[in-house]
Each structure stands twice: as C-alpha cells, then as structure tokens.
Write a structure and sequence with these properties.
This protein is an alpha/beta fold and 428 residues long. The protein has helices at residues 3-11, 34-43, 61-70, 89-96, 125-139, 200-210, 227-237, 257-269, 286-299, 338-355, 368-374, 415-419; strands spanning 23-28, 49-51, 54-59, 76-85, 110-118, 144-149, 162-169, 172-178, 218-220, 279-283, 305-309, 324-327, 360-365, 379-386, 389-397. Strand 2 and strand 3 form a beta hairpin. The longest helix has 18 residues, at 338-355.
Amino acid sequence: MTQRQRHSRSAKPVQATRAPTRLDCFAAVAPGLEPFALAEARALGLPARAEEGGLAWSGDLRSIVAANLGLRIASRVLVRLAQFEARTFVDLEKFGRRIPWSLVVTPGATVRFRVTCRKSRLYHSDAVAQRLAEAVRRSVPGAHAEARASDDDEPTERDDAVLFVVRFNHDRCTVSADTSGELLHRRGYRQATAKAPLRETLAAALVAASGWDGASPLVDPMCGSGTILIEAALAARRAPPGARREFAIERWPGVPAELVRTVRSELGALSRPSAPGPIVGSDRDAGAIEAARENAQRAGVATDAEFAVHAISAMRLPDAERGWIVSNPPFGVRVGEASRVRDLWAQLGHVLRRRAPGWRVTLLSPDAALERQLRIPTEVVARTTNGGIPVRIVSGVVPGSHLVSDASPRPGVSDEDADGANGPDVPG
C-alpha cells in the first residue's frame, strides 16, 4: 500500500452505526470528593477507578444510563471518543475526521463545544471548535455545529444540543461526548431556594462523608431550603437521584428507549418506601422552611423529613442516644460579617455540647478558625470548593457535657444575634 493510499484511508470519516461493546467512560466529580463518589459507583456495580477530578471505567450503554440515574456526587458523565496529540491545526483536522461523531450526533442535530486549552501549541479555543465543527458537518449530514467554543458549562433547561467537551493539555487532546445534558445536581426537585443554596451533589457528599448509617436520626439545625436533608432522605430510601429527569444519552442514535426504561425500573425497584430513621431540619427563616417543605414534596420525601421554624438555641433532637448533625453553617464573605459569623459558630458549638453529647457532627467549613469556635474536636475529611470558594468537610464526635462544663456562649451574644449571621450569597 502506498503512502498516499494509507493517508486517504486514515482521513476517511468514520460512520458509526452502533455503539461499541465497551466505551471509555468518565464521571466528573468535584476535586476532593472522588473517594465518596467511588464508593457509590461501586455500589451501583460500576467497575470504576478514581482519577483526579472523577471516576473512569470501561462500560456499556447500560452502565452510562445507570451512572446518570444513580450517582449522587458526580456532576457529569462523559464518553471519551478520542485522545490524540495535535501540535498543529493540520493534525487536529486529520484526527477530527476520524472521530465517530455519528455515534452521538443525529442528522440535523445541533452541536456545541466546550473547549479548554492549557500549555498547548493550540491555545485558541474558538479555532479548535471551528475545526472540530467542520469535522462534524462532514461526518453527519445536516448537523448544525457551532464554530465557537461555549463558555457555558451548563446547558439551559431547553438546550437539547449535543455537547462535546474538548480538553487540550500539553498538546494532548481529549474529545468527550456529554451523556448527561444538564449537570447532574439538577435533580428536578429544587425550584424553591433560600439564600446561598448548596448544590445537591455537594450536599450528598456531606451526607456520605458523615458516615451516616441511614437509620439513626439525622438533624440539620440550619437547613435552609432543605437540600442536605432531602439528599439524605433519597439516599436512605435508596432512590435514584436522577429518577425525575432525562439525560442527553436518551437522544443518542442507537440508544434504545427500552434500555433506559429497563435501567430506570431496575434501580427504582431497589428503593425503599420510606427512610428508616428520623430526619429533622430547622431554620429561623420561615421562608426557607417553606421552601424546604416544597422541595421535599417535589422530591417525593415529604413524609421522611420534618421541618420546623426556630433558632439554633431551640434545636430539637429526636430521642436517641446517638445521631448525626450534618449542616452547612453560614461562613460569610462580605465585609463586616466576620465577627457575627464567629459568634454563630460559637453558639452552634455551645448548643451541640449541651444537647448532643455523643452525636457525630459533620460540617462544611471555610477554615480552621471557625472550626475552633465550636470547641468540638474535628478532623478534615475532605477538601473541595463551593461556588469557587475553598472549603473543607470536617467531622467529629461531640464530647460529653462533663468534658465541657466550663463552656459558655461568647459574651454578649444572644441566640438571635448568632442565628442572624448570613452566609455567602454563592449560586448553587
């Protein structure tokens, strides 16, 4: 075979008619949360391994549907279609023609790209998207491929475009097809939110990091719109978090609707009718509690979680010797908030030491300075980010009252002042 013949054969577009038996899969996870996501992936039967920023496995279409439906902590599930080295646009065009675009794109579909380029000769994301868009149009008749790289990581609710995530790192290009659509924290139940909402995926990670057994009492004394408790109730029920939404893979050519229905049915059959133990939330903001109740209703766990309006000082615990406190206390980022937030954390620690000795407490924290206000021994379980802010998940057991008999609230701090501290207005 001549060199020209070999080049002609390699440049021919690949027309895939059905998915390979095994696909190169990757579930993106917020940095630091990979161990918790790996545990739930293995519980789903996925042969996953942890990598920086997520989980990787070789799987079939069923495994991808199961991952989208059942993973609580992952943010997106991708299929890696191609990996190659490209130092010039000629290289990119050559390899772009070999990518099996028709595995994912149907004729007439809209395609967009999310491109990042780091430490690579090809650093212009729009130019990269332009070359790949042309490759899609050559491979799939009638495809509408946007020639500009999108900066939007999350499609809108009505966006049914096929998304490809393209990453250049040290001249190494990875092209992945998104199988999720909207990011997986969009469960579909949270329409009402309080200030500084916590993403559902991070809330699920908090519950997992706490080591909650699913049957003992779980309490969030600053529950806001109830995300932590709703995620806990779904986990205790073993209910698939994605059961109430659709995914991009359902629009892929060659993905039978029967397969998706079967996986939904199989995972749904594992669910319990209710959470085994009491789940209790409170907040001094009546609007937040109303939002929590509405969200719990939409999530199908309204009968599992009890919500009440009251301050931290009036925190009520179920009658049990052992339980879990899991919460995301406000930590403030605006000027002038530091003192009030410290007071809030000190008040929380005081109430817990008096009323919850022996209970395990797990919190989302920005730094050790606030943790010291609790006067409860804790350790860092994980480090991650929330709305771009570095945070830590810390956990510990509340000591018995005889060990903290000298504990008292900070001088001059009332319950109302402490509870009134506001958290960061960080988008969920």
